[in-house]
Amino acid sequence: MRALAWITICVIYLGLSCQTCKRISHTAPPNIIWLVAEDISPALGCYEDPLAYTPNIDALAKEGVLFQKAYATAPICAPARSCLITGLYAISLGTQHLRSEIPFSTQLQTLPEHLAKAGYFTSNRNKTDYNFDPNERWEHWSGSLAPWRYRKEEKPFFSFINVGPSHEGSVNNEERYRQFVKDVPADQITRTDRVKVPPYYPETEETKAVWAHYYDILRLMDATVGQVLDSLKADRLLENTIIFFFGDHGFGMPRYKRWLYQTGLRVPLVVRIPEAYQHLNIGPVGSQTERLVSFVDFAPTVLNLAGLKVPVEMEGLPFLGLGIDAERRFVFGARDRAVDMYEMSRAVLSDRYIYIRHYMPHLPPIQTGFIYGDQKHAFRALREAKAAGLNNKEQDKLWQPKEVEELYDLSADPDELNNIVAHEDVQEIKSELREELHAWMKEKKDLGLLAEAEYMIRSAGSTPYEYARSDTYRTDRILRAAELVGGSDLGAIQEALKDDDSGVRYWGAMAIRNMLGTGVRELKMLKPLLDDESPSVQILAAESLCLREGHPEALEVLKKWVIDDRPWLALQAARSIQLIGPAARPLIPTLHRVLEKNLGTPGAERKYKNFNYAAFTSWALEWALKEMGEDVKVN
């Protein structure tokens, strides 16, 4: 009798279990929407920001899960979006610069392509900005806030919906801001006396005004989110649709966007999963999680939610759905060229610390040039405060060369004000984070270890992604050379300058560029590099020589490459010309010729023939000409 009872219980249990399995397996694949806001940090009501009015996003958080530690992989849009749409770090693809035109490997497919093969309808709203060709990736591409209505049959859908306005242009341009808020009642406009400016800004009426504008724009962005939600409700799709809301990187403000700190990388992330799909969630409705998640995890997560296998080439970890992996211990970030402003920095974050390594520390955070110009309200306000002597030590850092390494305890110092990299009690932590960062750079074949022009030349006939996975890309050796930057080991630097790998020689030259002012001996080491087989090494050596002394041979090098038809070479030379200032005066006629070559067709919307290399090269040259007293408008 006892045995019979146990058999009966087991049969009932198995029957219930099979019914449960059947219900889950027969649940229709979920619709999935990404609501992506440009240039916003977690300044929302659901993140307890007292100035934020974001009722629609707050409602999503009440019905979903809020992530406290979600991070972009870059503090600027194009490389961050490249990662989102591929599930690969931009440094793996060669898409880490803003902007670029990188050939995309036929060995890879984007997220919408994977989903389309599985029967999903895929759509994108407006912006792409992947640094590779976005065409033929989406079934539907328009400005619609309800793109699922364009389906020809009842298929599950994945929609990438850019919601705005929140881009820096809507805040930093007074005319655009006024246009956006013209219909907002006066009593809903954020008062400047309620604003507390971040510690990186002097507290002036101008700085308070630009931050107040941001909150007004966030109100409008939230209303756009509400339009999408209303359309889903009207179409009776809300309970069949998993909704992600997140920002593409931090605020579009100085010390946020383009800055490789938590301020530039941390984003809001709210995910609402309907009741029918709660078995795919990681927490109860209305909860918060401290789980570390990175943009590289988003594409694998969508595939996992859709019940699809994650391709082995994707580099992230699913954080929602069945069978999710263990939580990650670290997230990583990268900062490279932004328009014509060259940079190379890398960061790793744990649940408590952020470690940053700058490989071009001689370049200050705010460099001279158009994208940091006075046409942007926030930069103008900072520049005016600086001129008036209102800055404190922290605010002055925006204009000074960077420290080679930075380490911040985010639990004790969330604003990242106290660099503890030299403190004795954190040396083990620093070493662990540095080792993790180096291991990541080597494992992902970080293409930022080569100058942009260098890896474009080396990968000719293929793609940067495929080249980086060949035996000829020696990341270990090149990374060791990059670590010479910020040090003073002249013997090791001299050996690097003689290496048979141009990537190693480039970092030897960069180490000397960072040491300018230490003596003539170092400059003499650079002169042979004016004839180097690598154009990027030539350009860097020429820049350094021109900064310290008049050097006709170095000027000829810059002249040769700024007129080159390969746009990534011309851009590097143009930026070096802008940085050397008056020493470039003999090149003035050449610079005017390059500007003329880059012009678009008469009457076109844009002055230059593309909003990429042609424009960026021209802005650098216009700025250089303006600084040399030429009658030139920079735009």
Describe the structure.
Helices cover 40% and strands 11% of the residues. The chain contains 24 helices and 12 strands. The strands form 2 sheets. The protein has an 8-stranded mixed sheet with strand order 4-3-5-1-6-7-2-8, sandwiched between helices. Helix 20 runs parallel beside helix 22 and helix 22 runs parallel beside helix 24. It is globular and about 70 Å long. The termini are far apart. The N terminus is likely disordered.
* Physical arrangement of strands within the biggest beta sheet: 4-3-5-1-6-7-2-8
- Which outline best applies? globular
Return the average pLDDT rounded to an integer.
93
How far is the N terminus from the C terminus?
89 Å
Give the SSE map.
Layout: H1 2-26, E1 31-37, H2 55-62, E2 65-71, H3 77-86, H4 90-93, H5 111-117, E3 121-125, E4 140-142, E5 157-163, H6 168-172, H7 174-180, H8 205-234, E6 241-247, H9 262-265, E7 266-272, E8 287-294, H10 298-305, E9 331-335, E10 345-349, E11 353-358, H11 377-387, H12 393-396, E12 405-409, H13 427-443, H14 452-458, H15 464-468, H16 475-482, H17 490-497, H18 502-514, H19 520-526, H20 535-548, H21 552-562, H22 567-580, H23 588-598, H24 613-627
Parallel strand pairs: 1-5, 1-6, 2-8, 3-4, 3-5
Antiparallel strand pairs: 2-7, 6-7, 9-10, 10-11, 11-12
Helix pairs in contact: 16-18, 17-18, 18-20, 20-21, 20-22, 21-22, 22-24, 23-24
